[in-house]
Amino acid sequence: MKPTRHSFKYWQWRVILCSMVGYSMFYFVRKNFSFAMPALAQEYGITNTDFGIILTLVGIIYGVSKFLNGFIADRFNARWHLVIGLTACVILNFLFGWSDRLSSLVTGQEGGPDFVGTMVVIMGVLLVLNNIFQGCGFPPCNRLINHWCAPRELATKTAIWNTSHSIGAGILAVLCGYLIGTTGDWRTCFWVPGAIAAAGIFFIIATLRDTPSSVGLPELPDTRTELDQDDSPEAYRAFVRKKVFLNPVIWTLAVTDLFVYVVRFAVLDWGPTFLGKMSVPLSPQLAGWTIGIFEVAGCAGMLCAGWISDRFFGGKAHRVCAIEMGLVAVCLVVLQLLPPTTSPVVVLAILALAGFFLYGPQALLGVTASKHATKKAASSAVGLIGLMSYASVVVTGAGLGWFSDHFGWDHLFILMAGFALLGGILVSLLWNIKDDGYLHEPI
């Protein structure tokens, strides 16, 4: 028993840590476009509305891809799922760095409306393809966490794993801020992170494995489902219908996550732009640090929220989500009320505090969904939530792009505070739901 327990702990932490590194690489070849946008706008005159349309389109595509890959992930080897997706994303990022040259090949021009219009289309197509394969990132990792971590520790371990979001986005923010600030070349935002992500492909192949049974270990105890007796395709489809599509808990969590992502993407996608247009504008380097610190604070917030959920709320992570969404709304209202003479350091500190509270729900809503869908359909449930959450890009992409072109950024924070408050109210309706969807009685 002791050797098995020791081996399980070794592999559990190896899978958690190595999948964190692997998933953070996906951010290196996904969120870099936001940092290239100001330089692209300055060099080619591309409008915020154009950028917003692109962000909306790729966000919807990513949500659909995440949804479909959720079903694939529940039945496919996680290591190779990650490798296939990341390889494609790296190739597409290098091509994106040549999008201006591709436009010249198509139009035969080096500038002008036709050149810029064609370049926008090429960027849109490459980003759509990129986000199709970005959907291969989170679902297989969610499969791994739910197969290696028992329900009683899922909130804590998932919160630890979810720091990979912030690690990847935070390092990328600082890296791209300096690349743009020092070179002034938007292409470096795609080529340098792409090279780093390419090394991550080999890291995943060398270090990651799939479920406990793939390394000769027993599966988690007390996680029985109906599929343990009948795992046929027909039984699996019926199981997914019951645990995911006909489950009101999953749908409530999905709509709540939409509100979480409206706030999150407003900062991540438009942060480098609106922070540079405040009454006290921030330099590209300081804007990069601000978004990076927002992500670092999110890391700390996720860890605290996961530990608090398991330690003080008996694993009922949705209760912590309800409380924290209210606190996010408070932080955003404070940001809206700050006078124009406020120091950028104060803006940074309050925005970091908002990130601290926001990233708890961003991680823990999926924990509640995974518990109720069980490890057999956890990625399918999170895929559905991902589809709904990425509908937020309709607001944060084309919506905010159009709004900023016509009205500026003056009322951004109060708008986001309203979305945060709505999310907190909605998830609070689940306050007294049961713990999970496993079969705890003898079969």
For the record, the CATH class is: Mainly Alpha
Low-confidence stretches: none
Described by the principal axes of the CA atoms, the overall outline is globular
Mean pLDDT: 86
CATH architecture: Up-down Bundle
Give the helix tally: 17
Structural class: mainly alpha
SSE run:
HHHHHHHHHHHHHHHHH
> What is the share of helical residues?
over 70%
Total strands: the figure is: 0
Span between termini:
25 Å
- Here the CATH topology equals Growth Hormone, Chain: A
**Superfamily (CATH H level) name:** MFS general substrate transporter like domains
For the record, the count of structural domains works out to 1
Verbal overview:
It is globular, with a radius of gyration of 22 Å. The chain has a single domain, classed as MFS general substrate transporter like domains (Growth Hormone, Chain: A, Up-down Bundle). The two termini are 25 Å apart. With 443 residues, the protein is mostly helical. It contains 17 helices and no strands.
